[in-house]
Specification:
Length: 276
């Protein structure tokens, strides 16, 4: 049985999380209300000449990262940001642990069009900003929506704008990298553009899956790996069949991300041990 002291500590921790969550979600809404008019103003000023809405996206990136910066218990570390392109077609792929992954992705401060569930468009303020940026919507399980999403991705890639995808398709229940869908890699093969793997960790501590309670502490990490071309020898070379190249590219990227995630966690554990 738990001791009274342990029960008291557990109740205090739960109360602290509840208070942090109420304050956090309140600030989330208030900041959105304050900043959305600026987003509209930026759109009005730049839309005529900023064909890819880069300025709009960078403002959104700052807005999203602000939520991480203001949380006193969340720490963010990004490694390899310089590897990401400022222009040119590319497919960015990241593992998916939590809704906070999106904030970490925006904190990369590089241009991309993320793919998100279509329902996001109807969330007041944040959905409106989603539409201002012309981000890519997807109704999961709807074939027509999947086909439309693929066409939207091709549209942006051909305009020199990277797209951002989570090939697991849903959040991992345990933080480990699950099987990848082939869509992102088929797209990279078809458009012959590089894939940039991005490994994210710690976001499940910030907002666990199937929970609305914010974590009191979270060490958020993102690491950008070296890009992989879809016609490289590692995936069969340019003479291999496109379907085979897409499958090989998927497996290669996933394998590298799994190894990198393990290395990141080992490094974090080692640092904690040294601190002790």
């Amino acid at each position: 049985m738990n001791s009274p002291a342990a029960n008291s500590k557990g109740l205090f921790h739960l109360f602290a999380r509840l208070m942090a969550t109420v304050i956090g979600w309140t600030l989330f809404g208030v900041i959105g209300i304050v900043l959305f008019p600026f987003a509209v103003l930026i759109w009005l000023v730049t839309v005529a000449f900023d064909r890819n809405l880069l300025v709009q996206h960078l403002f959104t990136s700052w807005w999203a990262t602000l939520y991480v910066w203001i949380h006193p218990g969340w720490k963010l570390q990004i490694v390899g940001r310089h590897k990401l392109p400022w222009k040119g077609p590319a497919v960015l792929v990241a593992n998916h642990q939590s809704q906070i992954d999106a904030l970490v992705a925006f904190a990369l401060f590089r241009p991309f069009k993320p793919i998100s569930k279509a329902v996001v468009r109807w969330i007041p303020i944040f959905g409106w900003n989603f539409m201002l940026n012309r981000y890519i919507a997807l109704h999961r399980g709807d074939r027509k929506s999947v086909a439309r999403m693929a066409e939207d991705c091709r549209f942006w890639l051909r305009r020199g704008m990277p797209v951002m995808m989570y090939p697991e398709g849903t959040r991992s229940p345990d933080g480990e990298i699950k099987e990848f869908n082939k869509g992102a890699f088929t797209l990279a093969v078809e458009e012959n553009c590089p894939v940039f793997p991005i490994v994210i960790d710690g976001t499940a501590d910030a907002l666990p899956r199937k929970s609305g309670l914010l974590g009191l502490q979270a060490n958020l990490h993102a690491r950008v790996l070296d890009p992989i071309m879809p016609d490289s020898p590692d995936v069969g070379g340019p003479n291999a069949h496109p379907r085979e190249r897409a499958a090989a590219l998927r497996d290669l990227v996933r394998g590298r991300m799994i190894r990198e995630l393990a290395a990141m966690r080992a490094g974090t554990a080692e640092m904690a041990t040294h601190r002790v």
